[in-house]
Design goal:
Helix content is 52%, strand content 10%. It is α+β, with helices and mostly antiparallel strands. The longest helix has 22 residues, at 209-230.
Length: 421
């Protein structure tokens, strides 16, 4: 396992955004498929991927900005700090100030990364067998999704438009903030948005338990609850995209992967989760057959179907207080996707439609983030707000519903198949 992982790191070490994205996906899990006495060495190898950002001089990054705008950087910004404050999967983030006094974050793509990433994606299929041997959850479906995501994330102009929409959607929210984008100063390779001062995820994880629990509930509501509330959700839950702002709100960043879902498909997921929570195995199996999730019904019994869903989602389907640990989160993930595990062999051979693959991935990665926070809640009592349309039972839930009730009603947006933006 360790030798194969080193081979994977060597292969992916030559890639830019692809390596970092895989590293991000793995960083939310404490991969307990590795024996405990080897785990530290394994995580050290994975750290190479997580920190795979290339070293690019500020002069080269300045050239990207000035090429896209056709103007000197001093005309665009009153101040621009040349030291990056963060690394994105395909670029770096800088702090700057506009001429009108607004503080902004400026995300800039590495020069030539678009060409390099597209070449990487073409080559990635060559390494499927190597990847699968070390990380069996990296299935062809995951790689196909990765390719689609990376293509979408190359267009910062589209991401700026999406971020502006989500910032408007969550305007004046009591505990969620999405920094507004500045579309007029955003291009295909440069994204300018409002700067948010706050505490990073690693430091949030060191806070006292009540504060971690509060942030955990907010993370859960934003990344999972948004799907059932607004039929849309951010598909890239990641610790690097979360800040605890100075005013106590939680800021969410990075909208390169964003999904809108047909309300009928959202309702299907709601019905499946209800059936699993109520242990209605036959109903759950029939729902999945009708939707085409199970395409070989003769191989899948009702109990296997129910146990498979519970293995992945029991944490939010059982009405009890639960502390989510890294081991709990990664164990459920591996049980659901590792083809070497004997459990649920039939279910793992079924083909989950892409739109549901996106939402389940967001659910898993959110679970992983909550595990890193080691936070506690009755997750099912929170989820009942959107699964059963029940009134909230937490202080945050009450504040959220008051905000929902006060929001001006807007015309419904056209829905479409789940898609990256």
């Amino acid at each position: 396992m360790i030798r194969t992982t080193e081979q994977v790191v060597m292969v992916l070490g030559t890639m830019k955004g692809v390596a970092m994205k895989l590293g991000q996906m793995m960083s939310v899990l404490d991969l307990d498929l590795v024996p405990e006495d080897h785990r530290e060495r394994f995580q050290q190898r994975l750290a190479v991927l997580r920190n795979a950002a290339p070293t690019v001089s500020f002069e080269a990054m300045r050239e990207v900005i000035e090429q896209d705008f056709g103007r000197p950087i001093a005309e665009l910004f009153a101040e621009f700090d040349p030291e990056p404050i963060a690394a994105a999967s395909i670029g770096q983030v800088y702090q700057a100030r506009l001429h009108d006094g607004r503080g902004v974050a400026v995300k800039v793509q590495y020069p030539g990364v678009d060409i390099a990433v597209r070449a990487d994606l073409k080559n990635l299929t060559m390494f499927r067998r190597v990847l699968a041997s070390a990380m069996p959850w990296i299935t062809p479906a995951v790689l196909d999704e990765l390719k689609l995501n990376m293509e979408a994330e190359l267009d910062y102009q589209a991401e700026a438009a999406t971020q502006a929409e989500i910032a408007e959607l969550y305007r004046d929210h009591p505990f969620i903030v999405v920094p507004g984008a500045v579309p007029e100063l955003s291009t295909r390779r440069v994204l300018v948005s409002e700067f948010v001062e706050g505490t990073g995820f690693e430091d949030i994880a060191k806070l006292p338990a009540p504060e971690r629990d509060r942030v955990g509930e907010i993370v859960y509501r934003f990344y999972v609850g948004s799907l059932f509330t607004f039929n849309e959700f951010c598909g890239d839950p990641h610790p690097g995209n979360v800040l605890l702002a100075d005013d106590g709100r939680v800021a969410f960043l990075d909208f390169g992967l964003f999904n809108r879902m047909d309300p009928k498909l959202v309702h299907f997921e709601k019905l499946c989760l209800r059936a699993a929570a109520e242990e209605r195995a036959e109903d759950l199996r029939q729902l999945m057959i009708d939707r085409g999730v199970i395409d070989s019904p003769e191989e899948i019994g009702a109990e296997e179907c129910l146990e498979y869903v519970l293995a992945a989602s029991e944490w939010c389907l059982v009405d009890e207080t639960l502390t989510i640990t890294p081991e709990l989160a990664s164990g459920a993930f591996l049980l659901a996707v590792d083809p070497r595990a004997s459990e649920f062999t039939g279910m793992k051979q079924q083909n989950l439609p892409p739109e549901h693959l996106f939402s389940r991935r967001a659910d898993f990665l959110t679970f992983g983030m909550l595990g890193q926070l080691d936070c506690t809640a009755n997750w099912h009592s929170i989820a009942r707000e959107w699964l059963y349309d029940e009134p909230p039972v937490t202080e945050l839930g009450l504040a959220h519903h008051e905000w929902l009730a006060a929001r001006p009603r807007k015309p419904a947006k056209k829905t479409r198949k789940a898609t990256t933006r």
